[in-house]
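User: Thanks for the earlier help. One more: FMN reductase (NADPH). Can you show the sequence and predicted structure together?

Assistant: Of course, both are below.
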Amino acid sequence: MSSLRRQVFARVLAIAGSPSQRSRSSLLLRHAAGILQSRGLAVGELGLRDIPAEELIEGHYAGAAANALRARVAAADAVLISTPVYQASFSGGLKAVLDLLDPKALAGKVVLPIATGGSPAHLLALEYGLKPVLSALGARHILAGVYATDAQVQVDEFGVGEIDAEVRRRLEDSVERLSEQTLPRGAIAHESYDLGRLALAGGFSV
């Protein structure tokens, strides 16, 4: 294995903020993750179900799940964060996850927020709700968020869906920018990066 292959790689952590196993926001997140993997970036996944509900709800900062969460965020070069918008705010589950991070956990990382909601008006929840929280966590390089309405993303009972062409274009443009800013030209994804989920309480919430 070449020196480049051993040393130059980018790790991206995709965090799903939806409590549902079949959500529009997670469909967009999976699509973004797939593009990044095709660009040669190693992508790990984390969902609300990867943290025991009791620890998440009670904010067990010193718990094993929180420690594992912080370690995975610290190891990432970039972070994708998706959330549904409820009552003009991003999901409470995602807020609980972010509350377990250190104050500057996102410093030096490229961050791409993704959200879905019932109407275009809920775009403000992304701009004035989620982004300030990401900034408070030290993020200074937040890419333009991708927001889609429920009508633009269709998901069936199996979690398979269709993304509106305009939303798909915006998402792919944002992911391309993240890829360019995260992975140096010519770099190769590291073979040994752990793509597994946290071995705590099940899999990735989709």
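User: Great, one quick takeaway?

Assistant: The chain is about 35% helix and 20% strand.
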